[in-house]
Amino acid sequence: MNLNNLTVRSYLESAVERNASAPFLFWEDEQQSYEYFNSRVDQAAQFWFNMGVRKGDRVAFMADNSPAFLHAWLGLAKIGAVLVAINTGFKYAEAKYLVEHSEARFALVDPAHAELFRRIEADVPSLHATLSLGEADGLDNFILESDRFSGAAPSVNVSGDDLISLIYTSGTTGKPKGVMQPHRNYVLTGQAYPHWMKMQKGDRIYACLPLFHINSQAYSTMGAIGAEGALVLAPRFSASRFWPDVRKHEVTVFNFIGAMTVILSKSTPSPEDRDHKVRVAYGVPALPHDVRTTIEDRFGLACISGFGMSETTFGLLEPVDAERKPGSMGIPRSHPDPSVAPTEVKIVNENGEEVPRGESGELIIRTPAMMLGYFREPEKSAEALRDGWLYTGDSARQDEDGWFYFNDRKKDIVRRRGENVSSLEVEIVINQHSDVQESAVIGVPSDLTDEELCAFVVVRPNHEVDPADIIDWCATNLAAFKVPRYIEIVAALPKTPTAKIEKHRLRSRDYAAGIRFDGGVRSTKIASAH
Length: 530
Prior knowledge:
alpha/beta
């Protein structure tokens, strides 16, 4: 396979030729066929080109999920322009940083963000024009303007190595980095995803994760095309509308991240729990064994975990048809075409040397579907990409059978009393408490040496919990050195819109003085007895 020929334009148009009248997109009560969807993408491509957007130009989007988002983005892809999708929870300084850093020339926003982008446009000279997905004072309406065009998208020479998207990392450890994703990676992912999920032609993927996230872009959207199936798009994840949507649109596959499945598993049981067509759900991180078992038994589906990141869409996966191991991220996932180089994964020490199986080290990956680097960050690119390998910054181990297990982000390993403690391990135990919705554990300064553990805990709705109960629960299930010294009860954890907990925000606050989040309340702190 010539990877340089893999472009999203040819990938989509080839699927349209074979499935012109078949449904591709479901949105609420609207349905778009492959042919109609592609015609809207072509209209968008012509509009962008008429606006002066050219190959390589970056275009910032700050918009929620909608069909128009997909039309506008794939229209850019057809003419070789690059999506810079900004998470819709960002405030002025955060959004301005991404616009400036990406050197975006154009922007497309929801009306709700129009005023914010007027300010950005005034302060960022490189931003040439801002358009709106809907009516907004002083901005051209992208939907109405693109309706004026018809016919095929302009002909532009685009290759597999050309950029399709700058995926900015969540900034959980500091300033976001722009991950440079080329066309070939998205096509390879779209071809492989149906194989990984054992999808059949016509299967439907439910996409409730935001389109500014690589999951919805590469796995859901490209995967739907690869399966010659359909994308069922939702505005966002909603526990109350999740299963009604899934039933209404006969969804067969969905992706999850963060606490999504935990929230679903803790909902009130219903006689309709198995009234759906979902066969498999894929997501990260690996679920605790009892949570996975509860979800699979209750809802009658397979729950598959793995490891992927903005820097690579391949990585690791639990095979759907294999006996799974509790807590494992699975084995390397590769493209089904044997002419595409297989994915390789190793665990290495600080010198880059592979460690024996069973020992912990840094997880590194080599795959054809890997980022080109970080935009305008040559030093960080060189640090992450070495000799063809992606250094993930994650601590993991491999068992004797070749299955991999996640320990923690290297930065989230807490050194306590001479021992390394995985914050994830402690979080898993706390989250198993019947009154707990979710938690986050960080290291905080110690009166002695190393660090102490501090757990931020969100209690389930209509439940109460004494912080001392959390301490006792941990003491029952963890070694003494892993039991948090501090418990903070909070109304919410600070998160990115992709449900990743922003631990750098937790670390930046004075934990001893209590903590307040938007919509949250002052917490309670106690010291454990140990």
